[in-house]
Amino acid sequence: MAEWLVQLGGRDASGPTQRMEALVKVVSQIHKQWGIDCKAKDFTLAVTRLLQLSIIDRLVDILHPDVWDQCTKALAEDTMSSSSGKNLKAWGRVVKSLQKALHERTPGELREIV
C-alpha cells in the first residue's frame, strides 16, 4: 500500500488522472480488507467534488483524519443544495474504512501509509 502512496505524490504518476487511479487503488484495497462496498466511480465523484468545493487541495489530503469532519460537513451541505446524497454516501464509506484501518495500525505503520 505504501508504494501506491508514493504515486499519489506524483513521482510515479504523471498527472491528476494517474494520481486519482493510484488513490482509488489504495482506498479500494482498504475497502476490500474491511468488507465495505464502495464503487470506484462513486469514490472518484466524491473526491472530485471535494476538490471542486476547495475542501481539499490534493487527492492525498483525504487520507489525513484531521480533514474528515470538514469533508463530511461540506458534502452534507452540498447534498442539501443539490438534493443528491450520492457523494456524501460514498464519502461515508471512505471514512468508515479509513477509520478502521487507522485503528488497526501501529503509529509506525500509519506514518508509512500517510
TrEMBL record:
| Stored Pfam families | Retro_M
Q: What SUPFAM superfamilies does the record point to? A: Retroviral matrix proteins
Domain Retroviral Gag polyprotein M, which positions? 21-102
What name goes with this protein?
Answer: Retroviral Gag polyprotein M domain-containing protein
